[in-house]
Design a protein that fits this description.
The chain contains 8 helices and 14 strands. The protein has 221 residues and is α/β, with parallel strands linked by helices. Helix 2 runs parallel beside helix 3, helix 6 packs across helix 7 and helix 6 packs across helix 8. The chain is elongated and about 55 Å long. The mean pLDDT is 87.
Amino acid sequence: MQILLVEDDNMLAEAIGFGLRQDHWEIDRAEDGVAAQLALVEHTYSAVLLDLGLPGGSGLQVLKFMRDRYDTTPVIIITARDQLSDRIRGLDAGADDYLVKPFQLEELGARLRAVIRRTQGRVSPLLQYRNITLDPSSRIVTRDDEQVHLSRNEYRTLLVLMERRGRTVPREQLEQLVYGGDGEIESNTVAVYIHQLRRKLGDDIILTIHGFGYRIGEEKL
């Protein structure tokens, strides 16, 4: 299973990575919040180990970024902050567990296995519109009960719009949620993926609200 370790302390990151690899975990590392967000956009992880004190931002910002994108990957906060208020803030922000430094690698491994087991047992509600069904737990999209193969970004674009059915999503917000606000993307990137989704799912599935954004379904008042 592949884990994202978000930790700026090199010695600690190396120690955690070495210990977990001995237990056959695969580890990717991000040293700051920006790198973490890019990794989360590009890859799918079994779990995230997240430090709170990161260069140029907070681990809580990374956590908010994940949950805003409906990324349910389990997150264990690993931090030296041991105040009850810090733990409550982290758990309320969407973390699945909280481990205070220093800790034993055996305990970290056990907590990883526990949060992954809990996640695998979750049941995500199906998202449906007309003849289109999206299953967030399996990431399978069907049209008339036939599976439709979507690229990673096509799927994420559709997920954002289906989750907000009846609401117009501004193009800039769609970019942020799907691509992580990467300033390197082309100005027409969203339009390209919308075009591809229409080709695969039907021309009238996604509405263009000119000068603003995109919407699935009738507008909710």
